Amino acid sequence: MRVIAGEFGGRKLVTPEGTTTRPTTDKVRQAVFNSLTSMGVLEGAVVADLYAGSGALGIEALSRGAARCTFVERDRGALNALRENLKALQIDDRADIRATDVMAWVPAMRNVDIAFIDPPYDFDHWHELLGLLDVGLVVAESDQAVEAHPGYAVLRARRYGHTWVTLLERLA
Known about the structure:
Layout (H helix, E strand, L loop, with lengths): L25 H14 L6 E5 L5 H8 L4 E5 L3 H14 L5 E4 L3 H4 L8 E4 L8 H7 L4 E6 L9 E9 L2 E8 L2
Parallel strand pairs: 1-2, 1-4, 2-3, 4-5
Antiparallel strand pairs: 5-7, 6-7
């Protein structure tokens, strides 16, 4: 796996061993970030990478101009890979790591512009999670399109093989 574009484009990322994480493919990340770049929302943004795994989504955001990223992950192997990636890219100063459960941490999340959410495919708590979030834009990755929640409008839902990416915007 590698960073697709931006400041760290082409740099390799370490991924955790085993099957506890499912890395977002290069094709999906490229499509997501091309879309976000065309929307003009990445430059200077504060982002959160929830269910971060190796940190590929948050690192891609930082590479493309996001100011800061908070990575939330509880799996020990994934945390080791994430820390190794941040150290190798020398971006520890632009990143915070929260080694905890996403659902427990989200109520404390503040001042985040974009949340990248890539839980395991068997995750079935989207309604609850979206109800806890207070963020302008959500990039949700799942095995099916994520339905709108009363606080959010679906901007776009696209399928890439077995992966669905749904962009949701917070309603004013």
